[in-house]
Amino acid sequence: MTAYLVRNVSVVGAAPTDLLIRDGVVVETGAGLAAPDATVLDATGLVALPGLVDLHTHLREPGREDAETVESGSRAAALGGYTAVCAMANTSPVADTAGVVEQVWRLGREAGLVDVQPIGAVTVGLAGERLAELGAMADSAARVRIFSDDGHCVADPKLMRRALEYVKAFDGVIAQHAEEPRLTEGAQMHEGEVSTRLGLTGWPAVAEEAIIARDVLLAEHVGSRLHICHVSTAGSVEVLRHAKARGVKVTAEVTPHHLLLTDEKAATYDPVYKVNPPLRTAADVAALRAALAEGVIDIVATDHAPHAVEDKECEWAYARPGMLGLETALSIALDVLGPQWDLIAERMSRAPARIAGLDSHGLDPAPGVPANLTLVDPAARRVVEPAELASRSRNTPYARMTLPGRIVATFLRGEPTVLDGKAVK
User: Fold this and answer.
1) Would you call the peptide bond into 277 cis, given omega within 30 degrees of 0 as the criterion?
2) Which partner for 55 in 32, 149, 220, 352 could form a disulfide, CB atoms 3.0-4.6 Å apart?
3) pLDDT by residue (tens digit) across 129-155?
4) Same domain, 294 and 332
5) What is the pTM of this model?
6) What is the residue-wise DSSP string for 181-209?
């Protein structure tokens, strides 16, 4: 294993120092380090962050390898500064058994670009009728700890309660896609002034907020851990704030696109802007940004959702919802939060690693710590070119936008997966 000496780097925004990486760990920090056997990287002007961790990624394999594979998604993640991603269960077949989650886990290990941690389905086939093999998935080689029917809401309150009770035995987490399905039938975008103007069926904010309110009460009653996926409304923020003040074990995520884009984008009828939950209003965006800074929303998660060309380049009503996110998430966070490096490290690495139970991730570079880290050039600006993305899909809402920051290098257990902004393998 090659040793690396990273010179003159700012660790999470602190004064420049050197990092010596050997045998998969950071062995020494300080100014003027020497290591004749090490490969030297000049990191002047760069910031070292703990490797990013994404709690919400769709890798599509097995079943939709035309849109993404574990390998291509892992490469996109590494280029985005990630060292670990949690792969959602809505594959084909659904990841609702030990066999399927182990398949995804092994594909991640074979790719070797990021640690791929599978998320198991809550219900068999995501159908919302009976619990999946939660215990078997938890005891598998993949050691699943997060369960979600993402893309579908666990709408039955009795089933949701049972799931929360079940995972409590091994400190698991139920990650809820908060959408009351009876309020969103036929919905095409956020319900509001823009949907009225465009004549598109609206997805009301209350459909999200009602499920979050119900589930925080269930989590409080059971004493179990609940995670809310892709929070998108100001009302949801207030429900979460109240729940956290009561001591409920609830965490929440927001996506980069819900921090930046609004429902006005739907006026273009470009299906790249169709997503679930939908883009909301400018007031919602402002509330989400404030909640992220405050900590009411715990993390940024990409909801990276690649789709094949035929599923996006069609009429709005027939397009599948979802956007790419892995390769642009840090840039969006920088655009929204500014260079608040400690806050970015907390929301994009430390907190998601804690929620997922990934003990070797989310640790600031320091002696004795596994060398899972990323080097960022905050002064760089990049134009997003869809053809240059590592994902097999091209459905990015940021095409040809100029975004701040550039991932220069990513290390997974001391081995570079990205150098000089390019994937190593």
Assistant:
1) yes
2) 352
3) 999 999 999 999 999 999 999 999 999
4) yes
5) 0.98
6) GGG-TT--EESSHHHHHHTPPEE-HHHHH
Reading the block at residue 142, the tokens are: 């993949």
* Cα(169)–Cα(188) distance, integer angstroms: 39
Query: Using CA atoms, how far apart are residues 318 and 126, in angstroms rounded to an integer?
Result: 21
Closest CA to 256 of 335, 180, 318: 335
Residues recognised as catalytic: 303
Residue 362 lies in a domain: no
Judged by DSSP in three states, 33 sits in coil
Indicate the number of domains in the chain.
Answer: 2
Domain that holds residue 22: 4-47+367-423
Beta strands 4-11 and 39-42: pairing type? parallel
Round to whole Å and give the CA distance between 242 and 57.
Answer: 28
pLDDT digits (tens, 9 = 90+) for 340-360: 999 999 999 999 999 999 999
| Strand positions, DSSP E, 12-104 | 16-22, 25-30, 39-42, 47-50, 52-57, 82-87
Give domain status of residue 78, yes or no. yes
